[in-house]
Design brief:
Number of helices: 16
Family: Belongs to the fatty acid desaturase type 2 family.
Structural class: mainly alpha
Low-confidence stretches: none
Bound molecules: zinc ion
Membrane topology: Multi-pass membrane protein
Number of domains: 2
Main location: membrane
Shape: globular
Mean pLDDT: 90
Protein name: Fatty acid desaturase
Keywords: Fatty acid biosynthesis, Fatty acid metabolism, Iron, Lipid biosynthesis, Lipid metabolism, Membrane, Oxidoreductase, Transmembrane, Transmembrane helix
Strand content: under 5%
Strand order of the largest sheet: 1-2
Length: 394
């Protein structure tokens, strides 16, 4: 979808009444009702347990369901998992699966574009956080041409066609059941319903607003998306948004072992018990390549920025970086040749020799991988060296 680049159409966009009322009234209601409930009824452990379960269920339904499964096809899930995720995502009240995924695919395709990205961060924090839903902006009117795969699914189509009914019925039924189990109907609706809804809303919205403003950019600086470990805590791992924008089909967002990405663990866990398959992963070498390119870019920017005195050592450093860059380009070329070779081999080798050939290639790949690691280490060393020199020069 491409939107007419007309500023007036944005300025005069009419109010989107239903989302506007829901999104503005629920936080206000929560601000009044939650303290009142706590003051008058105290804290019921059963209610808070249900709250935690619903936070996890509805949160993961958005991240592992609406986002990684349906928007990006990063893996395939067992039908039972799909039902549970679709139910949870409906409880989360974040628009129908068609609207969410169509908008999200546009966001990736046109990221940061003021007219075509539905929640473009170029229009500021407030717009990308929630204003984009409060009015009928041209960029938010989807024609669903980018979700042909989802439109084939009867269950998803049903949810989209009867969305209002699905939201009200699912929440009413689920919360009434919780109320009966906990014996605290008021707590079920105020804490498990309202408070959970508002928190899940804004945690998701943070990804579009804060994750495009604050954090690092280890993989690409071609868009505003950032890696932010603090936001990852609130967003079930979606805080590693720079990685995600560069490698959107990977089922992981936090790709390092130490990064907090419970959505990734959840999907991996499902695959271990046969409830998910075809988990898509970007190979380590491609990831490292993106990281090293960014390292070079940062080193160059530092030198060009002139924040240190321009002495001979700096000139030497510059030379070092250019040499390293050249060497690195060669390694990358080697890697591309290897890749092409491996495709060629798979086409021509006989099945019984394929294994043997594969082993050889694997060896060569690991050699190239080691080389790239070396480049990266040398750059880091050069950096540390320069930093040390700059400190002693001061
Ligand atoms: Zn984004
Ligand atoms: Zn995405």
């Amino acid at each position: 979808m491409s939107v007419e680049r007309n500023p007036e159409a944005f300025e005069n966009a009419p109010i989107n009444w239903v989302p506007a009322i829901v999104l503005l009234s629920t936080p206000l209601l929560a601000l009044v009702l939650v303290p009142w409930y706590l003051w008058s009824h105290g804290a019921n452990p059963a209610t808070w347990t249900a709250f935690a379960i619903f936070m996890a269920w509805t949160g993961l339904s958005i991240t592992a369901g609406y986002h990684r499964l349906w928007s990006h096809k990063a893996y395939d899930a067992h039908p039972v998992v799909k039902y549970v995720l679709l139910f949870g995502a409906t409880l989360a009240v974040q628009s129908s699966v068609f609207d969410w995924c169509s908008g999200h695919r546009s966001h990736h395709r046109h990221v940061d574009d003021e007219y075509d990205d539905p929640y473009s961060s170029r229009r500021g924090f407030w717009f990308s956080h929630m204003q984009w839903m409060l009015r009928k902006f041209p960029s938010g009117q989807y024609d669903y041409k980018n979700i042909p795969d989802l439109k084939k699914d009867k269950l998803l189509t049903f949810q989209h066609n009867h969305y209002g009914l699905c939201v009200v019925a699912s929440n009413a039924i689920a919360l009434t059941i919780v109320g009966f189990i906990t014996g605290d109907m008021l707590g079920a609706f105020i804490i498990v319903g309202l408070l959970r809804l508002v928190l899940t809303h804004h945690f998701t919205f943070f990804i579009n607003s804060l994750c495009h403003m604050f954090g690092s950019r280890p993989y690409t600086d071609e868009n505003t998306a950032r890696d932010n470990p603090i936001l990852a805590i609130f967003t079930w791992g979606e805080g590693y948004h720079n990685y995600h924008h560069y490698f959107q089909y990977d089922y992981r967002n936090g790709v390092k072992w130490w990064q907090y990405d419970p959505t990734k663990w959840f999907i991996l866990g499902l695959s271990k018990i046969g409830l998910a398959k075809d988990l898509k992963r970007v190979d380590g070498l491609t990831i490292k390549h993106a990281e090293v390119i960014m390292q070079f870019k940062r080193a160059q920017a530092r030198i060009d920025g002139g924040e240190m005195s321009l002495d001979e050592r700096l000139a030497a450093f510059k030379e070092r970086i250019s040499a390293e860059y050249e060497a690195f380009s060669q390694t990358v070329e080697e890697w591309h040749t290897l890749k092409a070779k491996s495709v060629e081999l798979k086409r021509t080798e006989f099945a019984n020799r394929l294994h043997e050939a594969d082993e050889r290639l694997k060896e060569q790949f690991s050699l190239v991988e080691a080389k790239i690691r070396e480049h990266s280490e040398r750059i880091e060393l050069a950096y540390a060296h320069l930093k040390g020199k700059a400190a002693t020069a001061k």
